Q: What sequence folds into this?
């Protein structure tokens, strides 16, 4: 019987901003494909001289799906309409061959006009993913829950990127967030988090304890959701390091799958 493997994405920020800017994001396509990743996550903040069309062609040729991550906040403070740059960012994501655009929530309130958002999204083939970030406005359960309740009511093509580690920046429970928001999740960002001596929180590869937690969180989400590495991938042999982490994340959730079919 063939082993059950789930799709894994690599956020290119995992290789460190300096290296990624030096090499260019296109240079990682072959490495990710050889490591067994299913998706490559382009980081807008790390772009230098990449050619979007060439990137899209090469990624497709290597069998990689593409997601495009932007630091854009969907709802600017005090504004009822989405960020004016959203339309251009959707177009830029499409140019890279991305099927998904990941942004942050921003300052969502009852005054925000979801019909304006619906109009923008209907003009683009790119699906929108809204992530819990590390801010007060976009990294807490309550505003995200209000937003996705509205999305669901209005049947908008918007899903959630659930970043496991980011909840800690706002002292929120990832388990509670998964229970309340899990049905909206279409993309899982994985990172362990530790506090340095100076008090700063930093992302780390997972321990066995972290992996156990991630298994439980996946139980609140749709079966086989794509999970992404967003923690440091470092070492002399980046292919071996990446392959090991792809191997680990691809097997997360297998026990639930086996139980369901027992």
A:
């Amino acid at each position: 019987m063939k082993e059950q493997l789930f799709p894994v994405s690599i956020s290119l920020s995992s290789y460190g901003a300096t290296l990624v800017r030096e090499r260019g994001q296109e240079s990682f396509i072959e490495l990710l494909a050889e490591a067994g990743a299913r998706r490559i996550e382009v980081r807008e903040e790390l772009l230098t001289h990449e050619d979007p069309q060439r990137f899209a062609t090469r990624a497709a040729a290597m069998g990689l799906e593409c997601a495009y991550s932007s630091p854009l906040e969907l709802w600017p403070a005090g504004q009822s309409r989405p960020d004016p740059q959203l339309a251009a960012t959707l177009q830029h994501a499409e140019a890279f061959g991305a099927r998904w655009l990941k942004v942050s929530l921003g300052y969502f309130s009852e005054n925000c006009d979801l019909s304006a958002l619906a109009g923008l999204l209907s003009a683009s083939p790119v699906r929108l993913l809204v992530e819990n970030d590390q801010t007060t406005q976009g990294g807490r359960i309550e505003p995200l829950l209000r937003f996705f309740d509205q999305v669901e009511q209005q049947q908008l093509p918007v899903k959630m990127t659930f970043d496991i580690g980011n909840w800690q920046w706002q002292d929120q429970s990832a388990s509670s967030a998964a229970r309340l928001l899990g049905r909206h999740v279409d993309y899982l960002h994985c990172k362990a988090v530790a506090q340095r001596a100076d008090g700063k929180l930093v992302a780390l590869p997972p321990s066995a304890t972290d992996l156990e937690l991630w298994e439980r969180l996946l139980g609140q989400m749709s079966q086989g959701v794509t999970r992404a590495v967003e923690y440091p991938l470092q070492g002399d042999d980046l292919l071996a390091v990446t392959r090991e982490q792809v191997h680990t994340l691809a097997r997360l959730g297998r026990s639930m799958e086996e139980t369901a079919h027992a």
Summary: Strands lie at 8-11, 39-43, 65-75, 100-106, 127-131, 158-163, 185-190, 192-195, 201-204, 226-229. Residues 8-260 form a domain with the TIM Barrel fold (CATH 3.20.20.150). Residues 141-154 form the longest helix (14 residues).
